[in-house]
TrEMBL record:
<keyword id="KW-1188">Viral release from host cell</keyword>
<feature type="domain" description="Prohead serine protease">
    <location>
        <begin position="12"/>
        <end position="160"/>
    </location>
</feature>
<dbReference type="GO" id="GO:0006508">
    <property type="term" value="P:proteolysis"/>
</dbReference>
<keyword id="KW-0645">Protease</keyword>
<dbReference type="Pfam" id="PF04586">
    <property type="entry name" value="Peptidase_S78"/>
</dbReference>
<dbReference type="GO" id="GO:0008233">
    <property type="term" value="F:peptidase activity"/>
</dbReference>
<dbReference type="InterPro" id="IPR006433">
    <property type="entry name" value="Prohead_protease"/>
</dbReference>
<keyword id="KW-0378">Hydrolase</keyword>
<dbReference type="InterPro" id="IPR054613">
    <property type="entry name" value="Peptidase_S78_dom"/>
</dbReference>
<protein>
    <recommendedName>
        <fullName>Prohead serine protease domain-containing protein</fullName>
    </recommendedName>
</protein>
């Protein structure tokens, strides 16, 4: 299984309440086709995060595991799947990273979020002019506030497309082999019946 990352440019907000700064935004939205390197389109289906948001997920800055700013098991990161997508709330720590991030978001220097995930269920449609991958379920590993909200996991995502095509070829090969075997068995049974009648 391959870890992939996707990013989204949507407004982030820093809310201050009783000396607590909280970042609020969306790490993903449902139903918006995204172009992945000109090779295929990708759509995140509603429900893709339902099974994973109760796990141990971390909030990072720029996907850097050395810059943790929240964690679901600590209660400093809250994730909710709503009608729009994956809503994120991060209670910023009173650290240099926390203070810097609040300032950078307020100034508009950091304007996007991203998420790191492993696909656990997907569907491919290659009937159109460009393949479409619908992500139905993920194992969410992290969400990040990012300076460059772009689809930076493109080469990994392209490997996912090739893997799906390889699985389809193997499935088709196995199905064809099973049809050949079933036909041989059928012919063998008919031959045995003829021999037993003689």
């Amino acid at each position: 299984m391959i870890m992939e990352r996707r990013a989204l440019v949507r407004p982030l907000d820093v809310r201050e309440q009783a000396e607590q700064r909280t970042v609020v935004g969306y790490a993903a939205v449902f139903g918006n086709p995204a172009d992945i390197g000109g090779q295929f389109r990708e759509i995140i289906a509603p429900g893709a995060f339902r099974e994973t948001i109760g796990g141990d997920v971390r909030a990072l800055i720029d996907h850097d595991s050395g810059r943790v700013i929240g964690r679901t098991t600590a209660g400093t990161l809250r994730l909710v799947e709503d009608d729009l997508g994956l809503a994120v709330e991060i209670d910023l720590p009173e650290t240099q990273d926390g203070r810097d991030l609040a300032t950078l978001i307020a100034r508009g220097d950091i304007s996007g979020m991203s998420f790191g995930f492993i696909v656990t269920r997907q569907q491919w449609d290659e009937t159109g002019d460009m393949p479409v991958r619908t992500i139905q379920s993920v194992d969410l590993r992290e969400v990040s506030a990012v300076a460059f909200p772009a689809y930076d996991g493109t080469s990994i995502a392209l490997r996912a497309l090739e893997s799906a095509r390889r699985e389809k070829r193997q499935h088709n090969f196995r199905a064809a082999a099973n049809r050949v075997l079933a036909r041989k068995v059928s012919i063998d049974l008919r031959a045995r019946r003829l021999v037993s009648k003689a």
